[in-house]
Amino acid sequence: MRPSFLRSAVSCWFLMLLWSGTSRAQSTAASPPQKLQARQKLAPALRTPASAYYQEWRVSVREPQQFRSWLRQHLPQARLLPLGTTGRLFQISNLKTDQLTELAASPWVEFVDVSNRRAREERLIPSSDLTLNTLAAVWHQFPELTGAGLTASIKEEAFDTTDLDLRGRSLPFSLTGRFVSRHATDMATLIAGAGNTGPQGRGAARAARLTSSDFANLLPDDLSGLQSDKVSVQNHSYGVGVENYYGVEAKAYDEQTVQEPTLLHVFSSGNSGEQAPTDGPYVGLAGVANLTGQFKQSKNTLSVGATNGISELTPRSSRGPAYDGRLKPELVAYGAGGTSDAAALVSGAALLVQQAYRETYAGELPASALVKAVLLNAADDVDAAGPDFRTGYGQLDALGAVQTVQQKRLFSGTASQAATSTYTLSVPTGTAQLKCTLAWLDPAAAANAPQALLNDLDLELQEITTGRKWKPWVLSSAPRLDSLTKAARRASDHLNNAEQITLSAPPPGQYQVLVRGYAVTAGPQPFYVAYELAPAFQWTWPVQGSQVEAGQPAYVRWQWLGAATPATLQYRFEGATTWNTVATDINLQQRSYAWTPPDTAAQVYLQLQAGSLTLPTEQFLISPEVKARTVYYCAPDALLAWPALPGVTDYQLYTLQGAYLQPLRVISDTTLMVSDADSPSPYYAVAPLVQGKPGLHSQLLNYQQGTSCYFISFLPSQLVTSQPIDFEVLLASTYQLVSATLERQDASGRYVALQTISPVTQTQLHFTDASPTPGSSLYRVRLITSTGQTIDSRPERVFSLATDDLAVFPNPVQAGQVLQIATADAAALQWWLYDGIGKLQQENTADGVINELTTYNLKPGHYVLRVRAENGRQWTRHVTIY
Structure pTM? Predict the structure, then answer.
């Protein structure tokens, strides 16, 4: 019985083990519905058929400790690296892509996302016009607003900290392993360029500090580092592919803005406006929902599209909506070369708004939601009437944003569930438009959330005397092209954390702005409201004290909130009574006109006449361009000069000291002698004084670089010739020159005078050596000044040979150096070089006037060179190598 009992026990144990294994397999293998649910927790790019390659991913989890335990049990080979500060985001590696569904099936995993992708700069053609977005108007009307005391970060490649428009204001950052990028330098210049090198080198906030971080990491930078550098704006002018979901990067940016409410992130919308998304609810729809990166789907940041100089959306500017139908991009700005430029201008404008707020409100830095409300509220409506998925709330208006802050047209409060906050404002007679915008920093949603908005607030406007109410503008987000292009309508907004109401020609009186907590699940929720009482017309360029370049077409700009109205544009010089007509067929709704000012220096006015309306500008300058140059630099002295400008008697000199150009002195001459010993800097610029006011300054000169001492060129007509030798000399100036002499070096090495020109009255000189010495000769030109100084050109070697002659030089030649073979014509040659025992060492062909024979690897000794021309002539020359 014992064997039978053992067999039964073993059989029972085997069946139990088989049942246990089957049960365990059933408990760990995902059912088809579970697999489907797990796939929904994968980023769209990870839902394609799996491959066997090992990669890196990001995983967002609910309970980190439980997830770690689950991972050790089910995928023990996986490697985990914490990311960010929440403790719930990890980088995971050492898995095969076909294991991602198993990973996503974990009950502790919220979402599995892609890791860093290659970021691309979103700029095509360099361009800049800071008048369209009224940034230049801010400089003249509020010169104290320069971004001083604020810091912007440029996240991409490193910018050039030595650039003359950026130097002295860059915080330390590591360049190790990073490429110094022209694109990043341009973005830094658009944000905070000092304008030292010329008018195009000035950025929006010229005194702001700058720092840099690397866009190789697409997650937000470490917050402690941003806080340490006191960064209040970070610019992101880059993108990846078109992505349409709320991933871990979007979530992380929303989390960071809630953690640091005064930090504003500005993204370019992308240059993929003609593409169709390949995933998400708008898949396959051409020209919509093509923001380049899921981080741009964040709701507490700004995405910026690009327009050309007349506010037309550029074809490649990426459009919205966001994946869940939210309004994206929120703003557009000038950027004919791409959305990179547009984002940089908005970043610079945000710094000006922050500084205006800090100076108006006793040093306090505003919340980024307040800055967002101000920028969106001040924006000029373009494209379709009202907000749209192409241009958002409209064109950046920096001047309007700054005025909003300085005039304290702001409300703030805290919303709770079902509670309403009420604010009163007064609308004066003649107001063309009342506009108010609500914005708040919404808590981050879960990664892969079907809708990003969590706390839902409602904005409403009410006229007190009549009780009439107006709701904000909303757009249809249905996934059809005809729906996405429909005009905005008034309704409650339950998608966006920014809402806007506009009211045209509001009756004067008292109004209430109502903010209600419609669904505040994670409150209380701080919010901010900005409002504007806009007149029908306002000039935005030129403005008082501004300059336009003489004789060069440029846009004059205005804001108009009325109907289509024909107008005549005129200008008048200061002191004159006559108005000169520029154009008679301008529609005020164009809001701009390309005007070519007279080619003169003057103080002038513009005006638009429309029926009974006369709309004049303040006084501004027409400024000719000063084309200053370095005439010569004969260390330690240099001569700077520029052509006299009609109507200009005095010029303002500037020199670059520290980070900015500084006025040096006023002179009436058009030349300036400077010396290394006495000059405060090698950098100079010149501006005309137009009736005592400085105009546009010249491009910045460094007199120590790129300029020789008098000589621009000294060239023989031929390097090898059988005729008299002609020489052409081009001088930068004849200033203080007494004589110019052609000299030839003789056999002793001394230069002998051949021909002298005196006095020197022209900058182009001609010399001839009528009887050149046979063979090779060195020539130079010597200049003598009125101070007795002598300046020599660089020497030029010329070969004077008979028609059938051949020269070989230098001879002897040092081993490893080049031996030159010259003939009087360019006949094709073939040569053979033999050593002292007749062994062939080198053979070659050439067809130049001067040809080179290398002596590399040849031993010192005597050689025989035999040369034959294609016309049959032959030469033999003895060569010594030492």
Answer: 0.85
